[in-house]
Each structure stands twice: as C-alpha cells, then as structure tokens.
C-alpha cells in the first residue's frame, strides 16, 4: 500500500477526496492535515473529522494546520484578511467554494500536534517515502519545507489539486488554492520533489451531474448518500453561475487528485513542463506560469501538468470506489 498524507480545506469536494482515499485499497492514509482555505481552519478541521466519523474511520489522525496564508493577506491590494471573514462569501460563492458540510456533528478530536510539526516529524522519521495529496492552499507543506527542507527527500510524490492554464477561478489567471497562498505554492515548486498538478483545466472536464448523483445514491450507503448530496448541491451552485449556463454538472476538483494517484491515465495530455508560481502581487499573483516557449533554452521541466482528463474514467472510478463503503 502506498502511504499518503492528505492536506485538505474541507470543503465539499475535499470531503469526496477524503472518502475516496480512505476507501481505496491501494492507499494507506496515515494522517490528514487541515488548512485555511474554503473556510477558516477551525471549520475545515471540523468538517474533516465529520467525514472520518461518517466513514467510521476515527482512528485516522487529523492535524490542524495554518490559520493564515504565509504572505498573501499582507500584500497591497489583497484584503488584510481572508474574504469570508469579512462577509463577502455568500450565496453561490459559498456553495461553490465549500459550505459547512451537511454531515452530522462529531465528537472526534484533532491531535494536539499542529500540521506543520506533524509533516516535519512524519517525513523526517519515515521508513519509506510518503506521498502527499494537497487539495487546499499549500501553506502547511510550504511551511514544513521552510522548517526542514530535507523532508523533500522522503516525499515520494506530491499530487496537487490546484493551478490552471486556460481555466481559472480566483483571478483572470489564478486558481483558488494557489491564489490563497502563492508563496507556499512556489516553495513547493522549488522543492525538487516529483510534482503533478491536477489543475482546473482537468477538473472542469470531470464534472459530475445530477444523473451521476442518482446513480451513486442507489449504492445505498451513508457515504454514497453524502457524496450524492454534495454533487447535487454543487450542481445547483454551478448552474447559478452566469458563465456556466451550459454546464450540466459540477466539478469535484479534489476527488480527481486522488483518482489520478490511483490511475494516472485518468489525466490526459499531461505535459512535462517548467512551472513557477507568480508571487509578485500584481494582476498575475498566484498564476501557475508554464514555460511552453518553443525554444530549446526554456527552463527545464519541474512538474507534470494535466491539460485534460477523462470524465468517463473518473466517473466510473468514483462509483467503483464508493461501492467499497460498508456504511
Ligand atoms: C479548489 O478550491 C477549493 O474551493 C476546492 O476545494 C478546490 O480544492 C478549486 O479551485
Ligand atoms: Ca479543496
């Protein structure tokens, strides 16, 4: 089994990613880190614990991570605080960007150790390499790499949900997870680790529809019900979005990162490319800048970036994995 640590800002699509990772027989989830992102870290931690409880997997340790991005909220032009704390994230935005989940409350508690300290210790002491699946802002991993850069040697691979080439959602050229903490993302890009980006270009092609939700509901478990409800709610959110009138479903971004680890062929047209994250606090802050120059002197590839993905494959993977749930 491949040992993995999830880093999440749960978040509706994060919840589906966690479920798939816990159910997939090929993966051993040794820990889950929470981070500020879709909501403040207090809520993303609580949401994560609720998901574990729903699946009866309370033994998986959850470590609360960073409350704020490294630098971005200090930048001129950025809000001094994160938007939803100023009451800006309402209606459709809140639906799309991770409401508080409608999953029952839990008595499960997070660990005392914080996520950054956990990442440093777990990776320093690892007997075999560990794979990271960050599906929120990269703050915890960026901080851990700053504290102990040598942990990169014990990272097998980092499968990131984030970034965008032609598809973006938080500024004209940036995707939410990277936009929240561009500096952390750039630290990860400079770590020398094996990195795959599962960007919006790929996740938007893997939308799930209300028909898919109905099929999932037929599986008849609490887990399947929760996933179906998430898809239905997200579909409503996305169909209200003026620019997406033609869109018949909703992407479940983070779930695709887990599927990509299980079967890399769910990602298509994966480019080996050089990527840096813009941190300049201008219009392009948080852009994943790909060096696709038709020049022999362009920068050497430091990651794989998925331009497309296979919706049919994704859909059937999600359903097949959910069949493994026993509650
Ligand atoms: C990403 O942003 C968050 O809202 C989602 O959970 C996903 O990780 C998509 O841009
Ligand atoms: Ca997320």
TrEMBL record:
InterPro entries documented for this protein: I/U_nuclsd_hydro_CS, Inosine/uridine_hydrolase_dom, IUNH, Ribo_hydro-like
Domain (Inosine/uridine-preferring nucleoside hydrolase): residue spans on this chain: 4-315
The entry's keywords: Glycosidase, Hydrolase
Single GO cellular component term: cytosol
Molecular function terms, GO-annotated: purine nucleosidase activity; uridine nucleosidase activity
Coiled coil (residue ranges): none
Single GO biological process annotation from the record: purine nucleoside catabolic process
Domain of life: Bacteria
Family annotation (Pfam families): IU_nuc_hydro (PF01156)
Protein name, entry field: Nucleoside hydrolase
Gene source species: Bittarella massiliensis (ex Durand et al. 2017)
């Amino acid at each position: 089994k491949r040992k993995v640590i999830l880093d999440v800002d749960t978040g509706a699509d994060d919840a589906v990613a966690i479920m798939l990772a816990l159910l997939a027989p090929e993966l051993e989830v040794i820990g889950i880190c929470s981070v500020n992102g879709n909501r403040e870290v207090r809520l993303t931690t609580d949401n994560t614990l609720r998901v574990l409880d729903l699946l009866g997997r309370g033994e998986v340790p959850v470590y609360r991570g960073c409350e704020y991005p490294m630098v971005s909220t200090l930048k001129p032009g950025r809000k001094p605080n994160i938007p939803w704390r100023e009451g800006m994230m309402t209606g459709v935005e809140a639906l799309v960007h991770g409401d508080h989940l409608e999953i029952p409350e839990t008595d499960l508690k997070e660990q005392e150790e914080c996520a950054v300290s956990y990442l440093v210790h777990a990776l320093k002491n690892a007997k075999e390499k560990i794979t990271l699946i960050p599906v929120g802002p990269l703050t915890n991993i960026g901080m851990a790499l700053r504290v102990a850069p040598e942990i990169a040697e014990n990272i097998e691979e980092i499968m990131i949900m984030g970034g965008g080439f032609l598809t973006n959602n938080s500024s004209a050229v940036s995707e939410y997870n990277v936009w929240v903490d561009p500096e952390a993302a750039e630290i990860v890009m400079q770590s020398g680790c094996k990195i795959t980006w599962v960007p919006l270009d790929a996740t938007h092609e893997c939308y799930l529809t209300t028909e898919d939700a109905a099929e999932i509901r037929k599986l008849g478990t609490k887990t399947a019900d929760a996933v179906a409800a998430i898809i239905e709610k997200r579909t409503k959110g996305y169909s209200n979005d003026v620019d997406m009138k033609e869109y018949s479903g909703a992407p479940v971004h983070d779930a695709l990162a887990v599927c990509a680890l299980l079967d890399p062929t769910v990602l298509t047209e994966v480019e080996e490319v050089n990527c840096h994250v813009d941190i300049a606090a201008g219009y392009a802050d948080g852009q994943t800048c790909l060096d696709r120059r038709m020049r022999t002197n362009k920068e050497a590839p430091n990651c794989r970036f998925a331009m497309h993905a296979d919706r049919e494959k994704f859909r059937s993977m999600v359903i097949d994995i959910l069949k493994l749930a026993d509650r």
